[in-house]
Write a structure and sequence with these properties.
The complex is a heterodimer. In chain A, 22% of the residues lie in helices and 27% in strands. By secondary structure, chain A is an alpha/beta fold. In chain A, a hairpin with a 5-residue loop joins strand 2 and strand 3 (72-76). Chain A is globular, with a radius of gyration of 21 Å. By secondary structure, chain B is mainly alpha-helical. Chain B is 66% helix and 4% strand. Chain B has 31 helices and five strands. The radius of gyration of chain B is 45 Å and the shape is elongated. The chains are: A alpha/beta, B mainly alpha. Chain A binds chain B through residues 162, 170-171, 173-174, 177, 180-181, 184, 187-191, 197-205, 227-229, 231-232, and chain B through 6-8, 29, 59-60, 63-64, 92-93, 115, 118-119, 122-123, 125, 137-138, 141-142, 144-146, 148-150, 152-153, 377, 379. Chain A: One of its GO terms (cellular component) is box C/D methylation guide snoRNP complex. Chain A: It comes from Gryllus longicercus. Chain A: One of its GO terms (biological process) is box C/D sno(s)RNA 3'-end processing. Chain A: It is found in: Nucleus, Nucleolus.
């Protein structure tokens, strides 16, 4: 079950002492302060050493530290990467690199989250304040495609949470179902998100709605789904592609108009960031649905 | 008011305790904040659990389409029977509401207020559905979602291509094993009765015969009529008597017969497997099957690994799949690469001449690649593509095989010029008239011949009709026949035969060439020139005998009917006869 890509010899690592932890070659037992000693400060809650992966040369040790967002981690090595803990150890969903870490007796595996392929990862790396998907959350994911980001969301919410993945395309739906077979907290729904009443039997109330549908009537889709399934005070995270809504207008104007539409449907926006440098003319809007009136508390 | 709430576990009917709440729904959520307050607004009246996943699946699909499923219908009937007739039912889907109204005459309401109510119920679903643990519900939802998705994606088991790969592998294995067993049987039994092996070349027959006759001594009484034909059976029996094989014991023959049983069983199974493979291929990749055939298609898929893999290969790869060893060897040593791989065994490539196999293999590979892609990645495909492509290729084959006889563009002149230099084989056919030995004498033809010999009038006649021309020619023939003396008969017969054949040809030819042919004819039969001249001297002096004989003659020749009629008529002037002939030929 060992990761195939990682060789103990560390091909690229020889002589490449870049300072920090990356430079040291050899066994696990080395103390972290081997080289520059700057490592300790960096990882107070570090999960111990891991063999390199994810853009790093095989065999390098990396340190896993938790991210500000719960359920998300950072792998620090020669290059830093955003990772999530793999719920199905030993398997990659879309060919991403995996990092193995030994913590005491337990072996943990982390999967690298590629921000160029996933809008949510790009948003996290862009510094969004809250993603509202702590472990144990129920998430309604609209526009699940082949399930690459859905698998990461599933890792983040953990076995206690639930991800309802809605995807209309049949070809992508097949891959989604195959992914969902392995992960029991993903419920695949092959339906049009424009008609939430069609899958009302399968979905309960959710805490967060994530939408990456890339449709011109995106705002309506999200509001319909929110009305059906999003609890009061629940949050939404929407990825807006400007060229999809209106290719002639400027992106800022498009984002502003979308936000207005959302506000009309009681979806109150709280923050908006662009996904530079990972995507062009994309923005992510995070907000709350039917916020509880101030004074009563949520 | 009753509320219909569908869940993954089953249908729930709630009773709305306070109907006024519906009027003002903005603060409805307040009432549903805790389970206790929620239970004050709605009360669970009835919960109909789904008995198994199939029932749940059918119920969900019906809900998706907005139809009333059987279980829902039953439930509503029971509930409505108990409740008053004026009860209204609140449903989430207006379409479903309409359907219920139609079928059960139950008033249904579905508006935004109802949606709000549904929302609130959903929030407190766990509490309100008291008898159902939430984990159960989640598990059911998961299972239902998977089965529903499968149903949507039409994950039909006959679309799995692994079966094909395995079946082809098994077919090859079976063939090998069968061959081994048969060789062993032949060798083993050959000790006892070697001549049988030489008589019967077909393996299955051989084995069957062994089963029937056992040892040689039983061969005489044995009845092999339903396995073998009479002569072969006789041969076998004869050989059994004079065989030079050794004797073997009962035990030995028993074992050999067990082996024969195995062989028969395996060959039967192989045939069955082949049928299975064909039906699977037609179900999974209809277009590819039509183009290259079932076995070749199955081998291609097996070679590529899966149908999707085969679809990813470019057409040039499909062309040489199976000839990798030759390909890489040629690439390394900078030689000519192979032109075909597994595709060579397809029917279309097999039926062309060896010069064209390379071209056709390339064309077929291109179309096969397209067909594979359509089959692998398309949804609900028919067989039109495969049939169309096959037709195209067959047409192309026929055009190529003809050679370059046709110019696709250009005037007809070039074709005529082309034909001038193109030798046409003259087909000589045996004339029926050759059979007739009795000479005939006809009066009528003489005149025609006389006129026919005149050069300018000949072409005129011919221009009128081909049949007319042929008539003239034939009459010439007949005329030559008339003037028969015994030695000349034979010569005339020959010439008659030749001329009869030439008449067949002359019909096809153009105007200019026919007089040439006639001249040729005349030149060929130099001997007959004399009799022709002799005949021409005859005039009406020829008696009626000729007419009769002409009648009989014409009955044998191809277009004799018209002429027979003509000859019956009394001899009249040439022109009249020509006219008659013309009119008849016009008919």
């Amino acid at each position: 079950m060992g990761p195939p890509g990682f060789s103990p010899g560390g091909r690229g690592g020889r002589g490449g002492s870049r300072g920090g932890f990356g430079g040291s070659r050899g066994g696990f037992g080395r103390s972290p302060g081997g080289r520059g000693g700057g490592g300790f400060g960096r990882s107070p809650g570090g999960r111990g050493r891991g063999r390199g992966g994810g853009g790093m040369r095989g065999g390098k040790k990396v340190i896993i530290e938790p991210h500000r967002h719960e359920g998300v981690f950072i792998a620090r090595g020669k290059e830093d990467a955003l990772v999530t803990m793999n719920m199905v150890p030993g398997e990659a969903v879309y060919g991403e690199k995996r990092i193995q870490v030994e913590e005491g007796e337990t072996k943990l595996e982390y999967r690298v989250w590629n921000p160029f392929r996933s809008k949510l990862a790009a948003a996290i790396l862009g510094g969004v304040d809250k993603i509202h998907m702590p472990p144990g959350t129920k998430v309604l994911y609209l526009g699940a495609a082949s399930g690459t980001t859905v698998s990461h969301v599933s890792d983040v919410v953990g076995p206690e949470g639930l991800v309802y993945a809605v995807e209309f395309s049949q070809r992508s739906g097949r891959d989604l179902i195959n992914m969902a077979k392995k992960r029991t907290n993903v419920i695949p729904i092959i339906e049009d998100a424009r008609h939430p009443h069609k899958y009302r039997m399968l979905v309960g109330m959710v805490d967060t709605v994530f939408a990456d549908v890339a449709q011109p009537d995106q705002a309506r889709i999200v509001s319909l789904n929110a009305q059906h399934f999003l609890k009061n005070g629940g949050h939404f995270v929407i990825s807006i592609k400007a060229s999809c809504i209106d290719s002639t207008a400027t992106p800022e104007a498009v984002f502003a108009s979308e936000v207005k539409k959302l506000q009309a449907d009681k979806l109150k926006p709280q923050e908006q960031i662009t996904l530079e440098p990972y995507e062009r003319d994309h923005a992510v809007v995070v907000g709350v649905f039917r916020p509880p009136p101030k004074g009563t508390g949520s | 008011m009753l509320v219909l709430f569908e869940t993954a576990a089953g249908y729930a009917i709630f009773k709305l305790l306070d109907e006024k709440k519906l009027a003002k729904t903005e603060n409805l959520y307040h009432d549903f904040q805790t389970p206790e307050t929620a239970s004050k607004v709605v009360k669970l009246k009835h919960f109909e659990k789904f008995h198994d996943t199939t029932e749940a699946l059918s119920a969900t699909t019906a809900a998706v389409e907005g139809k009333v499923s059987k279980s829902l219908k039953k439930l509503l009937k029971n509930v409505v029977a108990k409740a008053e007739a004026t009860e209204q039912l609140l449903v989430a889907d207006p379409k479903l509401g309409l359907a219920i109204k139609e079928k059960l005459q139950l008033q249904c309401i579905s508006n935004t207020a109802v949606q709000e109510l549904m929302r609130c119920i959903r929030c407190q679903m766990d509490a309100l559905l008291a008898g159902l643990p939430s984990k159960d519900l989640a598990a059911m939802a998961l299972g239902l979602a998977h089965s529903l998705s499968r149903y949507k994606l039409k994950f039909s088991p006959d679309k799995v291509d692994t079966m094909i790969v395995q079946a082809v592998g098994l077919l090859d294995d079976l063939d090998k094993e069968l061959n081994n067993y048969i060789m062993r049987t032949r060798e083993w039994y050959g000790w006892h009765f070697p001549e049988l092996g030489k008589i019967l070349n077909d393996n299955v027959l051989y084995v069957k015969v062994i089963k029937v006759i056992g040892t040689r001594d039983h061969a005489l009484e044995a009845d092999l009529s339903d396995i073998l034909s009479e002569e072969v059976e006789a041969q076998v029996k004869e050989a059994a008597e004079i065989s030079m094989g050794t004797e073997i014991a009962e035990e030995d023959i028993l074992n050999i017969q067990h082996l024969c049983d195995q062989v028969i069983e395996i060959s039967g199974y192989r045939a069955q497997l082949f049928d299975y493979l064909r039906s699977r291929m037609m179900a999974i990749t209809p277009n590819l099957t039509i183009l290259v055939g079932e076995l070749v298609g199955a081998r291609l898929i097996a070679h590529a690994g899966s149908l999707i893999n085969l679809a990813k290969h470019p057409a040039s790869t499909v062309q040489i799949l199976g000839a990798e060893k030759a390909l890489f060897r040629a690439l390394k040593s900078n030689k000519e690469t192979p032109k075909y791989g597994l595709i060579y065994h397809s029917a279309l490539v097999g039926q062309t001449s060896s010069k064209l196999k390379g071209k056709i293999s390339r064309m077929l590979a291109a179309k096969a690649a397209l067909a594979t892609r359509v089959d692998a990645l398309g949804e609900d495909v028919g067989i039109e593509l495969g049939a169309e492509h096959k037709l195209k290729i067959e047409r192309r084959i026929s055009i190529l095989e003809e050679g370059k006889l046709h110019r696709i563009s250009g005037t007809g002149r070039s074709q005529a010029r082309f034909e001038k230099h193109h030798t046409k084989s003259e087909v000589r056919q045996y004339g029926d008239a050759q059979d007739f030995a009795i000479p005939t004498k006809r009066k009528v033809e003489i005149e025609e011949v006389g006129s026919g010999e005149a050069g300018p009038s000949q072409p005129k006649k011919k221009r009128k009709t081909d049949i007319g021309e042929q008539v003239v020619v034939k009459e010439e023939i007949k005329e030559e026949e008339e003037d028969v003396t015994v030695p000349k008969k034979k010569k005339k017969k020959k010439s008659l035969g030749a001329e009869a054949s030439e008449t067949v040809v002359t019909e096809m030819e153009t105007f200019e060439e026919s007089p040439k042919k006639k001249k040729k004819k005349i030149k060929q039969e130099i001997e007959e020139e004399q009799p022709e001249e002799v005949v021409s001297q005859f005039d009406e002096s020829v008696g009626e005998k000729k007419k009769k004989k002409k009648k009989s003659l014409t009955a044998e020749t191809e277009h004799g009917y018209e002429e027979a009629e003509e000859q019956i008529a009394t001899p009249s002037s040439e022109k009249k006869k020509k006219k008659k002939r013309k009119s008849e030929s016009m008919e």
